[in-house]
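I would like you to help me understand the sequence and structure tokens below and explain how sequence relates to structure.
___
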Amino acid sequence: MMLKRTVCLLLLLLGTISFAYADLEIHAEAKAKEPDGSIVNITITPIKGASKYKVEKSIAEGEWLTVLTTSGLSLDTNIGNDVQTRFRVQALDENDLVIAEAFSESIQTEAMWFNTRRLNRFIALMLISGVILYYISRARKNKKIYLRPVAGLQAFEEAVGRATEMGRSVLFVPGIMDLDQVETISGLIILGHVAKMTARYEADLNVPVSRSLVMESGRETVQASYISEGRPDLYSSDMVNYYTDDQFAFSAAVDGIMLREKPAAVFLQGKFYAESLIMAETGNSIGAIQIAGTGSPSQIPFFVTACDYTLIGEEFFAASAYLGDDPKLLGSIKGQDIAKALLMLLLVFGLITETIHTGIYNSDGFFLNLKSSGNDPSAVYEIISEASDKNINDVVAEYSNLGKEGKAVYIAKNKVTKGNALKILKKLEKEGAEVVLDENLDLKIKKNKWNLYKNLFAGS
């Protein structure tokens, strides 16, 4: 019996000594179920005499990059996917001298084929794509597609017809920028539809441009429109003319055309800047019917003021679908309108649920609606006020009186995952409080302050 006790004591002593003088070790392991696959969990086995540890990772043969220096024994870091990486840890004493060194095994991470954290985006993409493809299919089957009427687009035919009746020309300005701007391209697409109308009504068309590439593209667009209407004899390359790249010199040239020719219809469709109001005011002064369109928010107020019709933002880009009969464009516009309507309904639904606190989970946090169950509704306030020093602000951001239904206490979600923070929640729940956890609240809770509440919530 005495021998057995002696052996047990010796084994226990040897285990204690071996633990105290264990070798420094570092273990690196890829984080499980990480979609991006680049996060590595690092664990350090401590040794006696070390005050902190310097962790490094390999970036090339014989080259190391410092990750951080820490006194902790576990950490997470990022590495490149599909790259063999090793980690090195150096134990430092109080004088920052290296007393031990250890290396991890090589590790390689890889991203998941399917990122489950983005499942909601995938579902939304599938739903929106499905709606768009459905309406494209309907348009291809010659089924009528209803699109919201846009007054400015409906006035195109009226403007060209008015110019024909008055025996005056149609002036079309596709902005002042080059083809690298999407608004210029959209303006040229609209030019093609206007050119078809002028060919059909045999009206004169004048297209001044400020870029040479826009001139060539404009000529090809107008020519194709006249050919498609069966009137190539009416087309002339002089319909599209280049003037100058200078912003205000071009504006002066366009104003001169307006004052000399007095066109009956003026189309300002493209990218504009400060010259927008100059052109629009001149067109207004000659009594022309003006239809403007741009995606520039800063110029829309000037066009709305000086022009008869204005295509605002998205209407301008959707004009080609409205004016043409392409089923792909019609179906796309209709599908996008349906998707936007669904998103607006979701926004309204989210606003309502956030307002009334229905307890529905969202990405910013979650709600625990705990109504008072017979307890004194002021009990929660009394619990908080018992620790009514400045430190309580580190735990409770705000509380409000809910009358007989209880109290509402707001606590940061990412600050209540362990320790006495959970005790606080349990205590509040028992007292019938409405506890709202929200990641957006900026609370700074220090671990050493939890002891202040240890006795207060000891019974939780």
